[in-house]
Write a structure and sequence with these properties.
- The complex is a heterodimer.
- In chain A, α3 (69-81) runs parallel beside α4 and α7 packs across α8.
- The longest helix of chain A is centred in the first third of the chain and has 25 residues, at 2-26.
- Chain A contains ten helices and twelve strands.
- In chain A, 46% of the residues lie in helices and 19% in strands.
- In chain A, the strands form three sheets. Chain A has a six-stranded parallel beta sheet with strand order 2-1-3-4-5-11, sandwiched between helices.
- A five-stranded antiparallel beta sheet of chain B has the order 3-2-1-4-5.
- In chain B, α3 (41-57) crosses α7 (146-171) and α4 crosses α5.
- Chain B is elongated.
- Classes of the chains: A alpha/beta, B alpha+beta.
Chain lengths: 311, 207
């Protein structure tokens, strides 16, 4: 009798453990690790990814790397240890973040990059703004607005981020054909508004005679605009940004800045969450890189757009 | 004495071991072969232009036909004729036609086609992805490096700027009849047909 009871208990134990396993399969979770939540653009990216994960029936949690790769590594370790089944990732550093992606791959956790690129084939898929092409369009408008001549300043983003160089290269691939346009200064302001202001103030000391500023994102463009206002040059100097952030869209409406290139964080975040969902359902043949089109926004078409490409 | 010999022998072995692991040699031919594997965008672009883009341009819809479709059934026009490597609203169309030049300025030539459509063809700003993407012949999954794709677009445009535009620009004038083929960009969310500017791939003055 005791023997039968033991066997029955064993069978029940196996049954219960199987049930738990199938239950955990249903409760997959997505970790959303973003470079910084100190910039409203990335907040929107993260929140949209979380909302999409929720609409697909998954739990998610947002981790803020505060532009620090060491903190990002901690988040990856926590996410893997806590049983997150996929990571929707906005990297801090194209090279510095590679090790984290490798760590996730080793643990069997797929990584879907949003907006920023990692220099590694180990990410499952990378959904990235077509920054280069967006800046070619922006550069054409830049040349037309300046009538092919003038002195200009370029504010670069974070030097270790691929987007910084994709934007700069796209811009120069067109502008450099016009010898009448002279770049008098090129300096990094780390995609940061306050640094954009400080860097622009210092550049204006050395180069007061400028006609335009090309900034690698809207935060730096707005910082540069503030510096130009303080120097009494805002009326003359044309400012061009990139992102489609809320204050930049308003500034275009108010004719304070000339143009921006609209990115679509919503498209990137939703695609990343959808890809993770497809991965859970067995799909494995993801394109390594998917560019998302960027659109030129000027005063002429400003009514077609609102911040962050939201519809 | 023997101990000293062992000591020196061990020291020599350690030094030789460290030195041999600090430097390495590769055959020059191997290095050259590896460098040659780097993507040659200029070569790819020339081959693409000759064997894919120009033959495809000959099969592109006539400008009048395409513009009419874009006005009457835009969704149909995008579904049938538009392509693009990016996801999003930007799409590209191939087009061809013949017409009479109504004006020429520093940036564009304006042509009135047989079916009374005015088309603007770029003579100055030949940049961007239109010629790369419009035929839909390039597969994004064949490229792991996005900069390779950017460079293809830049090199195709460069060939047009350096080889197609100069003989045409120096000769074209109002009243000429010309034949052309090219590509243009359109935003499928915000369709603005007045802003269409064709990036040419072939331009010929007929008379």
């Amino acid at each position: 009798m005791t023997k039968y009871l033991k066997i029955l208990l064993l069978v029940m134990l196996v049954f219960v453990s199987c049930q738990n396993r199938s239950g955990s399969a249903k409760q997959k979770k997505m970790a959303i690790i973003v470079s910084t939540l100190n910039n409203p653009w990335f907040v929107f990216l993260a929140q949209t990814a979380a909302a999409q994960a929720k609409s697909l029936g998954y739990e998610s949690k947002i981790f803020d790397s505060q532009n620090n790769t060491a903190l990002e590594t901690d988040h990856f370790e926590n996410a893997i240890a806590s049983g997150y089944s996929a990571i929707l990732f906005n990297p801090t550093d194209a090279n510095g973040s590679v090790v984290n992606v490798q760590k996730a791959k080793k643990a069997g956790v797929p990584v879907f990059c949003m907006d920023r690129e990692v220099n590694s084939p180990d990410a499952t898929s990378q959904i990235l703004s077509d920054s280069y092409s967006g800046c070619v369009s922006l550069a054409k408008y830049f040349v037309q607005t300046l009538h092919k001549k003038g002195n200009y300043v370029e504010l670069l983003g974070i030097v270790a981020d691929n987007n910084t160089w994709a934007r700069s290269k796209g811009f120069h691939s067109l502008v450099d054909y016009y010898p009448g346009l002279k770049m008098v200064a090129q300096q990094s302001a780390d995609f940061d508004r306050n640094k954009g202001l400080e860097v622009m103030e210092s550049i204006l000391q050395a180069h007061p005679d400028i006609d335009a500023v090309f900034a690698g994102n809207d935060a730096m463009a707005m910082g540069a605009f503030q510096a130009l206002v303080a120097a009494g040059k805002a009326g003359h100097v044309k400012v061009f940004g990139f992102d489609g952030a809320e204050d930049a869209i308003q500034a275009i409406k108010d004719k304070k800045i000339s143009a921006t290139a609209m990115q679509f964080p919503k498209v990137m975040a939703q695609t990343a969450a959808n890809y993770a969902d497809a991965y859970f359902k067995g799909k494995r043949d993801f394109p390594k890189k998917i560019p998302v089109a960027v659109e030129l926004v000027t005063y002429d078409n400003i009514n077609d757009y609102i911040a962050y490409g939201k519809k | 004495m023997i101990k000293k010999v062992i000591k020196y022998a061990a020291a020599i072995i350690i030094v030789v071991f460290i030195a041999s692991n600090s430097i390495y040699f590769k055959k020059l031919s191997d290095v050259k072969a590896s460098a040659a594997k780097q993507f040659d965008a200029a070569k790819y672009a020339r081959n693409y232009l000759k064997t894919q883009l120009i033959p495809f341009a000959g099969t592109a819809p006539q400008a009048g036909e395409l513009l009419t479709l874009l006005k009457t059934k835009p969704a149909n026009a995008f579904k049938t004729y538009a392509h693009g490597l990016d996801i999003g609203n930007i799409r590209f169309f191939m087009v061809q036609s013949q017409g009479v030049v109504t004006s020429v300025d520093e940036n564009d030539v304006y042509v009135l086609t047989k079916d009374k459509q005015t088309i603007k063809i770029a003579l100055e700003y030949v940049f961007g992805n239109a010629l790369r993407d419009a035929p839909g012949l390039i597969n994004i999954n064949d490229f792991t490096n996005t900069m390779d794709l950017n460079n293809i677009a830049a090199e195709v445009d460069k060939i047009v700027r350096n080889e197609v535009l100069p003989p045409f620009k120096s000769a074209v004038k109002k009243g000429d009849t010309i034949s052309f083929a090219g590509a243009f960009e359109l935003n499928q969310e915000h369709i603005n047909l007045d802003k269409i500017e064709v990036i040419p791939v072939t331009l010929k003055i007929d008379q």
